[in-house]
Amino acid sequence: MQFKLTEEHEMIRKMVRDFAQNEVAPTAAERDEEERFDREIFDKMAELGLTGIPWPEEYGGIGSDYLAYCIAIEELSRVCASTGVTLSAHTSLAGWPIYKFGSEEQKQKYLRPMAQGEKIGAYGLTEPSSGSDAGGMRTTAKLVGDEYIINGSKIFITNGGIADTYVVFALTDPESKQKGTSAFIIESDFPGFSVGKKEKKLGIRSSPTTEIIFDECRVPKANLLGKEGEGFKIAMMTLDGGRNGIAAQAVGIAQGALDAAVNYAKERVQFGKPISAQQGIGFKLADMATGVEASRLLTYQAAWLESVGLPYGKESAMSKLFAGDTAMKVTTEAVQVFGGYGYTKDYPVERYMRDAKITQIYEGTQEIQKLVISRMVTK
Ligand code: CAA
Q1: Among 17, 119, 241, 257, whose CB has the most other CB atoms within 10 angstroms?
Q2: Annotated catalytic residue: which of 104, 350, 363, 367?
Q3: What's the CA gap between 327 and 331, in Å, rounded?
């Protein structure tokens, strides 16, 4: 087994780390406070090629792999988890299904401008009454002439309102539930499409999360993604990879909190010596560092499996489960290391703790990851 990253991976890590430190970190707290998405940051990511890391050059990408993509999400999330998830939803939730299931025409029309960062992508699966039970959706798509007429709504949409291209799932045959679900590529200016309520959130506050509404929304037949009835499978396969992007986000959040805790513990003197040299805190830092490293290895493994074309669904659910729980533990401990200061907005660890919580919830709750893993190991 070989654990060394390639030169290309190391180069991408360095480039994203510099970018994150210089361009993303300085405004992270302010954007969190103001719940403000910054398009300029996205545009700068596009200039660096980050908006199309795993896609081939013929589709506007930089032709790298899923491991490089995870490293980028990790490095961004190390300073700003909101920026991490903006790129993650754009790439693995919207770009991936178009890359895998789109026709050549759809890839040129939709994936290319997304990969080049001219357009932002989003994914619409969850509905008010179907969250974990994704097969219980109610949004319908009826073929009338050359168009599908879509009615319904989707909630908790990452990049809602800022996205131009939405990959959305709807029932073309409501009786058949999962087998009657189809996927569509929907442009934000299609008639009948609108953006609804914007959520006020605990964390990832500079990443907009909204409702999207379809009121007799007219979608050209050519925007069916894959075949009719393939939608549920497309949604699930998309989440298989997406979950590893969230694991990478969790690794980044945990690493950021660990770095802050280590630096603080070395400087903070109590009882005549730095608190890092006192076992109560030293052992905490050891547990935190071990958790981060284990999470990173699981995440890189799943990314590597996907990059070389091996099955990765189980490993991706495992990485999200483990890294998400680790991020929550590590960030909570980081606040503890900072004591009273950690509870204030003078330091970034309270933000890391708030941001970590969502990694246990979105792209399938931890309980859903356990369901997926248990089904795979008992199959
Ligand atoms: N790959 C390929 N096919 C799959 C699959 C996968 N990973 N998972 C399921 N399928 C197929 C099954 O094989 C089955 O097909 P057949 O009948 O032909 O065999 C079909 O899909 C139905 O599968 P299940 O019977 O397993 O379906 P289920 O109703 O029991 O649901 C579930 C399974 C895993 C619980 C699923 O509902 C699920 O993943 N729920 C969580 C949803 C989720 O993660 N939502 C997050 C949304 S995105 C988000 O968070 C917002 C954001 O923007 C970040």
Answers
A1: 257
A2: 363
A3: 6
Count of C-beta atoms within a 10 Å radius of residue 130: 16
Q: Of the residues 132, 233, 306, which should be mutated to test ligand 1's pocket, given the most ligand atoms within 8 Å of the CB?
A: 233
By alpha-carbon position, which residue is closest to atom 11 of ligand 1? Answer: 233
Q: What share of the chain is helix, strand, coil (3-state, %, to 5)?
A: 60, 15, 25
Q: Which atom of ligand 1 is found nearest the CA of 365? A: 44
Ligand 1 center from residue 101 Cα (angstroms): 17
**Would you say the ipTM is above 0.85?**
yes
Distance 125 CA to ligand 1 centre (A): 11
Q: Are strands 121-124 and 181-187 parallel, antiparallel or unpaired?
A: unpaired
Q: How do residues 51-95 score in pLDDT, each as one tens digit?
A: 999 999 999 999 999 999 999 999 999 999 999 999 999 999 999
Atom of ligand 1 at shortest range from CA of 375:
26
Please state, in angstroms and rounded to a whole number, the distance separating the CA atoms of residues 125 and 11: 35
CATH 1.10.540.10 matches 7-120: yes
CB-based contacts of 346, cutoff 8 Å, min separation 6: none
- Tell me the fold of 122-231: Butyryl-CoA Dehydrogenase, subunit A; domain 2 (2.40.110)
Whether 122-231 and 232-378 share one fold: the answer is: no
199 is catalytic: no
CATH 1.20.140.10 fits 232-378, yes or no: yes
Distance separating alpha carbons of residues 366 and 321, to the nearest angstrom = 6
Residues 38-59 have pLDDT tens digits of 999 999 999 999 999 999 999 9
DSSP string, 280-336: HHHHHHHHHHHHHHHHHHHHHHHHHHHHTT---HHHHHHHHHHHHHHHHHHHHHHHH
Atom of ligand 1 nearest to the CA of 233: 3
For ligand 1, atom 15, the nearest C-alpha belongs to 233
Domain layout of the chain by residue ranges: 7-120, 122-231, 232-378
Q: What is the pLDDT of residues 169-187, one digit of tens each?
A: 999 999 998 999 999 999 9
- The candidate with the shortest Cα–Cα distance to 142, out of 194, 232, 193, 216, is 216
